[in-house]
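FORM 7B: Structural annotation worksheet

SECTION A. Query
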Amino acid sequence: MPLKLLDRYVIRETLLPTLLGLLVFTFLLQLRPVMEVAEKLLAKGVPALTIGHILLTLLPRALGITIPMAVLVGLLVALGRLSADRETVAVQACGVSIFRLARPVMVIAVTAWAATSWVLISWMPDANQTYREIVYDIVAARAENEVRPRVFFEDFPNLVLYVRDNAPEGRGWRDVFVADTRKPNQPEVFLADRGYLVLDREQRRVDLVLERGTRHSSPLDTPERYEVQQFARMTMGLDPETGFPRTGLQKGENEMTIADLRREIARREAQGIQTHNQVMTIQKKFSIPVACLVFALLGLGLGVTTRKDGKQSSFVVAIAVIFVYYVFMYTA
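SECTION B. Predicted structure
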């Protein structure tokens, strides 16, 4: 059914405040992680173009929340202005039912629902995977090129790496010292004749391999239990993401595709492990976009009013409704 003049008018009036609301809400939600990410990455010498690419991968999580919020604000502002200017009264005086406004409102709601569904179901997992690949490439490049002789390398948290010289064969280092405090109650020190990094791009792993060395450890609560162990070869697994800000984008349920989640559910069921979080995540990928439809109905009911201050109070009403809705959703 083609859109009538009234439909196009309501959509046009709603579009600008919706886009402005989307911009403002997304900016506010992204401000803190953007500042943290940009500061840490700039301090590590990461190029600005790469930082911008990483920041782009942070958008999907925010948009999944801000699109429904922007729809509600846009509808309340647009319908509030129509009510304040008595345009809704004129429409009813022409014999047009106020429920006739539901058609353009639902066109906006369905469009926003489709956009939110795409963000949560498709874009978010892809953006998370892109983030992991970029971070891995950065860490791999820095680890390979920036571990220098007689300079402490501390990019991996709770791990200090010091080498005396590069290996003569061109790979790795000689006389390696590693201080590992990842276990706060039992720090460890490793001394090895040779060490090098092994990068597994498929598994996104970075392993530190030490050869012909000794491991020194002593629990803090019982310092008399000092242990020394010799080894011919030892592999120490490193998390390639720990050297850079995660910003909540680690590989978890919220970042898996629906197919990944179903495979994870099947694996857990086979092992007798609880699958509540995975099932709820699948439901959330479909239920959160429905907020666009709910907010559209609320916007229609609250926006069409006979009060003269409808235009001024619309934003306050929208914020109150959004606050109540998301408090109920997250506490549930």
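SECTION C. Observations
The two ends are 39 Å apart (CA to CA). The chain is about 55% helix and 15% strand.

SECTION D. Sign-off
Analyst initials: ____
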